[in-house]
């Protein structure tokens, strides 16, 4: 029997924007090599695999090159698939057992709101090679559980950024978050995210990066509820709310493709 796969654009309400993720709802656990092969074949920043476990679903995320510990947009896409494809009633909370513990998602109107762990960045000395890697000089530097975080002086500098991806790949980090304050009314901060070490040169919209961005900008701006825009070529909006050691990540999702995999 062929295995169904669904492609969802996350953190957007418009097809072909936001961040695409493939979602496989499996009848049982699958072999790691097969999941990695499927993720490589899909060649998206993430492919999510889930199956029923306990009172929820076991959820795993794979880039084209590696399994990762936390992914926001593919979790949002997975919750969207569970509700729209009839696996869960629309009013029921989606519960995911993951490498980062229990994650949940709920529908709030047209928006999906996820509960994730905060990964606040700690201030660090500016790495000597980061300006050459980014092609711009950051004004602040930090490091979260997963990634480096670097603030640029202006939104214009962030949008114009053309980093040296091969240099970034050599940094001892999962990825590099670059951020700036926003110059757009209704948006609090901007970001971009580069993770070539796990096969993602530039990610369109990165939920897990906002687990670091939310506490970072909450402290800088003095507010707990904010709107972030990831200024990649596709772009996407992430609504964030810091709640202690957790971050609520909100966004929209739209299905763009349904298909079947050879098994």
CATH fold name of the largest domain, please? Diaminopimelate Epimerase, Chain A, domain 1
Count up the domains.
2
Which superfamily, in CATH terms, is the homologous superfamily of the largest domain? Diaminopimelate Epimerase, Chain A, domain 1
Order of helices and strands: EEHEEEHEEEEHEEHHEEEHEEEE
Largest sheet: 18 strands, mixed
Total helical segments: 6
Mind sketching the topology for me?
Elements: E1 3-10, E2 19-25, H1 32-42, E3 46-53, E4 56-62, E5 67-68, H2 73-84, E6 94-98, E7 101-108, E8 111-117, E9 122-123, H3 130-134, E10 140-143, E11 147-151, H4 155-160, H5 165-169, E12 175-181, E13 189-195, E14 200-203, H6 210-221, E15 225-230, E16 236-243, E17 246-251, E18 253-261
Parallel strand pairs: 2-3, 4-6, 11-12, 13-15
Antiparallel strand pairs: 1-2, 1-18, 3-4, 4-5, 6-7, 7-8, 8-17, 9-10, 10-11, 12-13, 13-14, 15-16, 16-17
Quick overview of this protein structure:
By secondary structure, the protein is an alpha+beta fold.
Descriptive terms for the model:
18 strands; alpha+beta; globular; 18-stranded mixed beta sheet; 263 residues; Diaminopimelate Epimerase, Chain A, domain 1
